[in-house]
Amino acid sequence: MVLTQEKKEFDVNFPIIIIGAGACGLCAALSAKEHGVNPLILERDREPSGSSALSTCLIPAAGTKLQKKAGIDDTPEVFANDIINKARNKNDPNMVRFISNESAPTIDWLIDNNVPLKLVTSFFYPGHSQYRMHGSPNRTGTELMEALLKKTQEKKIDLITSALVTNIFVNSTKTITGVEITRPNGAIENIGCKSLILACNGFGGNSEMVKKYIPEMSNALYFGHTGNRGDAIKWGNEIGASISDIGSYQGHGAVTHPHGTLLFWGLMTQGGFQVNVNGERFSNEVRGYSEQAVDVISQKNSYVWEIWDSNSHEIGMDFADYRNGANLGAHKIANDIIEISSLTKMPLNKLEKTFSNINHYRSNKIKDNFGRDWSNIKPMTKPYFFAKVTGALFHTQGGLDVNSSAQVIDKNGKAFPNLYAGGGAARGLSGPSRWGYLSGNGLLTAVVLGKIAGQTAAEKIDKNDSEIR
Ligand SMILES: Cc1cc2nc3c(=O)[nH]c(=O)nc-3n(C[C@H](O)[C@H](O)[C@H](O)COP(=O)(O)OP(=O)(O)OC[C@H]3O[C@@H](n4cnc5c(N)ncnc54)[C@H](O)[C@@H]3O)c2cc1C
What we know:
Layout: E1 2-4, E2 12-19, H1 23-34, E3 39-42, H2 50-54, E4 58-60, H3 65-69, H4 76-86, H5 93-112, E5 118-120, E6 133-135, H6 141-154, E7 158-160, E8 164-170, E9 176-182, E10 188-198, H7 207-213, E11 221-222, H8 231-239, E12 243-244, E13 249-256, H9 266-269, E14 273-275, H10 289-297, E15 304-308, H11 310-316, H12 320-328, E16 332-334, H13 337-344, H14 348-362, E17 384-396, E18 399-400, E19 407-409, E20 415-421, H15 441-460
Parallel strand pairs: 1-8, 2-3, 2-10, 3-7, 10-20, 11-17
Antiparallel strand pairs: 4-6, 5-6, 8-9, 9-10, 12-18, 13-17, 14-15, 15-17, 16-17, 19-20
């Protein structure tokens, strides 16, 4: 809840409070510290992880030092156009351009802060016209979180865990004065601040809110962090913040079932495909993984089979999630179509027809009914790999509107004096839909807006009055 009180006394005061210790919150903290202010991070969990730790840690950026070194010619303008095209022009072009411009400086800054990112050039993600994904060695968000946490410890940044922020305090000028935290044993503490940064992601972990705002995913598996319960959006609503694209989200159409491991979408862009229990394709798989989630859960029994080849399997072995799925037995192997049919019970004649059609699409003899472009796809190499997959909700993309200082704005476009937001708490770059999400833009807005929020909040603090009291 938001509690309005004119002169609230707090147990202790920090210049900046950051709610949430995911990628956004940790970047905000590092950036605030770099600009001379000691922030306090409050995290509900005992160990910080968030959706950031669950992620594949692929972050797109245009014009980075790594791209230049690899001879990749990319610019923020080209990147911005890709983001705008993916969302069919329904996102905020100013914010898209701002984030694209900040993408390379932010990735370079993360690398300077010892986050182990490398440029990924083994495959393209749908909608990206250049190699611009930057990923950790095993493509896992735990590597990102470990690196950021290590840096915050080195910088002696205060982090209080098991601290669920339950209420925030404002005065009549809509200035945030502090927060209330509730400990696991029910104890309540109040902490004052001069600025507040909301880095507590969206509402994927709140089934009531998902039902209300994203009904099409209300029965889908939620694959993100369950502690993300929409608190930033609830507080924003109460103080009259502008909130946009609330029904927008990132889904994913390839979570193995029932093992629950993730298949990266490069399997598709390299020539993989999905068939329903009848052995028939049902969509253009390479539009994007987000929109595929609904297509998958709309099929009989809400699952389908994904089929890929041995070349893609080799690329997959770079991904910890993929190796995990292989080790758990989620991925099956077959030497021919007969074996796939016999193991999956998909009708052989239908499956053979699907494989044969794909060969024809590839050699341009017939056009794909779903509009997929197969022109650069090589013939599949054996053995074949396949897995039963379902669609899932990964994170919500609607949220608080912010300006280019990451300040939350009200319904008239006016910035709240000392309230900031980033990552999943802020409106994303996807527009209002399930199909607007361009791969990697979840972490991108987390790290860029986190860095900007930390910097601008710190710059506004009177350094002579930033002592912790
Ligand atoms: C399986 C999976 C794979 C993904 N892969 C990628 C990828 O490769 N690239 C990409 O760009 N995006 C990816 N994403 C999306 C990405 O993970 C998120 O967009 C990003 O992590 C959001 O960062 P954040 O800091 O805003 O939120 P989080 O990392 O979720 O951090 C929010 C933190 O706030 C805490 N919190 C919440 N409420 C409170 C409260 N009231 N009080 C105190 N603490 C609170 C939470 O416990 C959490 O630790 C993936 C998502 C999933 C689920």
